[in-house]
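Hi everyone, sorry if this is the wrong subforum. Our group has a chain we'd like a structural model of before ordering constructs, and none of us has done structure prediction before. Sequence below.
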Amino acid sequence: MKSIFSLEAEIAVVTGALGKLGPIWIEALLGAGAAVYALDLAKSKISEAFAKLQSCHDESRLKLDRTDVRNRQSLEAACENCIAALGMPTILVNNAGIDRPPADSAKGYRLEEIPLEENREIFEVNTLGLFQVTQVFGARMVAAGRGSIINIGSLYAGVSPDERFYDHIPGDPPFLKPPAYGASKAAVVNLTRYLATLWANHGVRVNALSPGGVLGGQDEEFKRKFCRRVPMGRMATAEDLHGPLLFLASQASAYITGTELVVDGGFTAW
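Answer:
Right subforum, don't worry. Here is the predicted structure as tokens:
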């Protein structure tokens, strides 16, 4: 008997494929039987995690397209290429996004000094880019009468970051997580509800998956502070995210749309 979580014969599109979370989603989708059309910027380096997936799957199961989510023409071409290479997409994982973690912050800012351009770039990718991808690929799903769209949010869509997590990092001014990041993810959650109600009668479900505290690249002091704040006492692993994604992508969630699934070990419960 076929598993309710099976994605055999499904075609999944994943944006931000070469980032931290992209290979996690792709591994889960491939493992459940889907073929994956992966999108990321031309300048993005192929990560070790993605290269490992490529070594295990040929282009009939995993194909990489260099596409900018901010470029409508590029996205239209990517959609046509996906259909030609793999078939009509039935799953869309809107994962492309940018943040400004401490390691990527060449200069610190006080709140009143944050350049508008920095906030604008985050919104252009995290919110407007996601919307544009959904316009292009979601419209095809609507025309076909079926599909599942999973918008990747963040626990910071609903709560403010605790700056005490970063107060051990030297700097003057101290590191400040960009306010645009949480605001852009909150917009994603609201947009998810909008699209879910609009497209429900067309056979397309739209949900948000908001992970929190995903292990990878953080310094030991940050991890210690963060884990003290999490009821489950640890950060999320890749395996912790596979199940929630497959649930939303598959027929296991056939009667679920417009919801936000928060995967944070209880962080937002306190």
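For your construct planning: Strands lie at 11-15, 35-40, 62-66, 91-94, 147-152, 204-211, 260-263. The longest strand covers residues 204-211.
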